[in-house]
Amino acid sequence: MKRKVIQTCIFPVALASVLTTTSFAQSAEIVPVSAKDVEVVPISYQIKHWSEVFIDQLSKDYDVKDVFDGKNLNSTIEVKDFQNLVRVVLDKDYDGSPDSLSREAVVHELMKIWADKTGKNLDEIAIIEMLIYTDLSQVDEKYQQSVVIAYMKNIARGRGGGIFDPKTGVTYGELAALIYNTAQVVTKENQANVQPVAENKFETRGTYEIKDDKVVFNFELVNHYKETKELMFGSGQQFELTITDEKGNEVYRYSDGKFFTLALIMKTINPGESIKWQDEWDMKDKDGNKLTSGKYKAKIEIMVVQEEEKEKIDESELTTEIEFELGVDEKNNIVDSKSVKNL
């Protein structure tokens, strides 16, 4: 894995710093529960384990009971529990697994998920050159970029004392901290990328996902006015969605071959609320040929009838474009190309 490097100075305090939030490590002031000290009992009865704060935080928003109940928090995780927790907290469609259950491999897998969820490329991220861990040289070269980025993002900060311990298996307590920290960073970075929207306007938003060999588009028209708005549609067709390839050729149009009721339809949107739609593209062009790879652009137009006696809505508020790229993974499945790059 290629790495970009930012030169920086080494300060002793960097290695001695202690995070306010424990990350992938046990606090020096807390005595961990060990397998030889206590019997394995439901987690609700184990107390004073450093990782319980992370499990409690996860439990507020997610159902993580199946992963942690009855587990010794100091025992090495099982692959199925890693996969289940990732699906519950980070990515409901996750179907991967780490190369192993070692600390270096698990951190690498989580950084791949972080990169996918935030639109980053691990190989293109510049990393710091400093002795963050005294045993960094023991980390497999394949994982070093991810381990350093995880340190920079406060997702994983080692065992303390400048030790990462890359080959040791991840425990259930450590998994709780890693997943919680990853989720926090993903949420924070995605929120930072959302541009504030001015009041007194509409906004068309759209997202997509690859599911069941189709591209599924979810989109909505949001009311950013302070008052309720009523919109009129001229027929049963309330939107148009067209997809073009990188040469500009149209490969799909939602309305092709469809018939719509010819009747005026009124829709009411309260302040801050939206009207939502969904459409699916089976990845075939207009001749019925399956398209397995390439760059595409989807244009979504909300077909509101502009009434003369009402304030005119700018066309830019009623349209949005989504650019995406299809690729084929190692199992010959059609996927978002971002996933292919992170395999």
Structural features, described:
By secondary structure, the chain is an alpha+beta fold. It is 24% helix and 23% strand. The chain has 8 helices and 12 strands. The protein has a 5-stranded antiparallel beta sheet with strand order 7-6-10-11-12. The longest helix has 21 residues. The N terminus and C terminus are likely disordered. Pfam families: BsuPI. Keywords: Repeat, Signal. It comes from Acetivibrio thermocellus AD2. This is Intracellular proteinase inhibitor BsuPI.
Task: Give the topology.
Blueprint: E1 4-7, H1 12-16, H2 52-61, H3 65-68, H4 79-89, H5 103-118, E2 126-129, H6 141-152, H7 172-192, E3 202-211, E4 214-223, E5 229-233, E6 239-245, E7 250-253, E8 265-269, E9 274-281, E10 294-302, E11 319-328, E12 334-336, H8 337-341
Parallel strand pairs: 1-2
Antiparallel strand pairs: 3-4, 4-9, 5-8, 6-7, 6-10, 10-11, 11-12
InterPro entries: Intracell_prot_inh_BsuPI, IPI, SLH_dom
Protein name: Intracellular proteinase inhibitor BsuPI
Keywords: Repeat, Signal
